[in-house]
Amino acid sequence: MVKIISDSTCDLSQELLEKYDVEIVPLHILLGDQEYEDGRSITPDEIYAWSDANGVTPKTSAAGIDQMIEAYRPYVDNGDEIVIFSISSDMSTTYNVMRMAAAELEAEDKIFVVDSANLSTGVGLQVIEAAIMAKEGKSAEEIVAHIQDISPRVRASFVVDTLTYLHRGGRCSGVAALAGGMLKLHPKIVVENGKMKPEEKFRGKMSKVVMDYVKTMEEDLKKAEKSRVFITHSGSEPEIIGAVREYLEGLNYFDEILETRAGCVVSSHCGPGTLGVLYIAGK
Q1: What is the pLDDT of residues 106-140, one digit of tens each?
Q2: Residues sharing a CB contact under 8 Å with residue 118, sequence separation 6 or more, in sequence order
């Protein structure tokens, strides 16, 4: 048997985790001197309230090595193989902690640690592919080989409603945040080679911005892997999410359109109202 595990940044809903039998190891959120587990002991909305009240972005950290060992041990003791996914190693030490925990258990031959080179459902897309293969009885090596094939084709991007949180986290200058707010500018952030980078800016109300953003991807969306596409958001208006879903349905292309809300780690850095459409590009 192959067990699929991921850190909490994969942003898969509880329904999807249960459907694909995926276990989650939560990253940690630090609000001042209080520490919480992503998705278990704190919600994104609580993070927003704390951040606005204190004027700072929460710190995030990887799970501890003991926590990782605890996640591995039942499957190692059972003789199972494990494929575990981490947020991009350029964004977190999680990948290294996962590898160290495998070494501590002397189970490197049973535990396959995958650097997703991504975040949010950019990780989730890979996790689902792995989980489907595990259910089909594929070996860990077969699963990892497939993931290595699709990982460079995962397309993860999102548009940000407010620059305030990126500024608080040191990812945007105060001048840029102020100018962006005054001009109603909303950057598109893409994940490329494991790193986040701004690609272009949209102007106007978020309802218009989101649709402009999605429509710029139309040709690529029509060439994507048909199996699934994600709408992932950090607390967007239902009307905006509904408009994106309606647009994607109108393409008559994807087998399923999945909607998820980003977890605490992603939300704490990008702030409320951020929305992305994530998919796997075709070969």
Answers
A1: 999 999 999 999 999 999 999 999 999 999 999 99
A2: 87, 88, 126, 151, 154, 156, 191, 194
Strand ranges for the chain from DSSP E: 2-7, 22-25, 28-31, 34-37, 59-61, 81-86, 111-115, 154-155, 157-159, 185-192, 195-203, 228-233, 256-261, 275-280
Report pLDDT for 180: 40
Q: Fill in the amino acid letter for 250.
A: G
pLDDT of residue 165: 56
Helices 94-104, 65-77: axis angle to 10 degrees equals 50
Chain position carrying tokens 């991921």: 6
Backbone φ/ψ region at 21: left (φ over 0), alpha (ψ -120 to 50), beta: left
Q: Residues with Cβ < 8 Å from 28, sequence gap 6 or more?
A: 35, 36, 37, 38, 60, 61, 62, 63
> Within 13 Å, how many C-alpha atoms sit on residue 194's CB side?
13
CB atoms within 10 A of CB 170: 9
Residue spans of the chain under pLDDT 70: 163-184
Tell me the CB-side half-sphere exposure of residue 58, using CA atoms within 13 A: 32
Provide the 10 A C-beta neighbour count for residue 47.
26
Which pTM value belongs to this model? Answer: 0.93
Q: Which amino acid is at 228?
A: R
Q: Which of 214, 10, 244, 241 is nearest to 122 (CA)?
A: 10
Residue 233 has phi, psi (to 5 degrees) of -140, 165
| Of the candidates 202, 187, 182, 212, the residue with the CA atom closest to the CA atom of residue 270 | 187
| Residue 57, phi then psi, degrees to nearest 5 | -90, 135
Integer distance in angstroms from the first to the last C-alpha of the chain?
A: 29
* Structure confidence at residue 174 (pLDDT): 36
Strands 22-25, 2-7: parallel, antiparallel or unpaired by DSSP? parallel
In this structure, are residues 266 and 11 in contact, taking their beta carbons and an 8 Å threshold? yes
Q: Which residues pair with 258 in a beta bridge?
A: 230
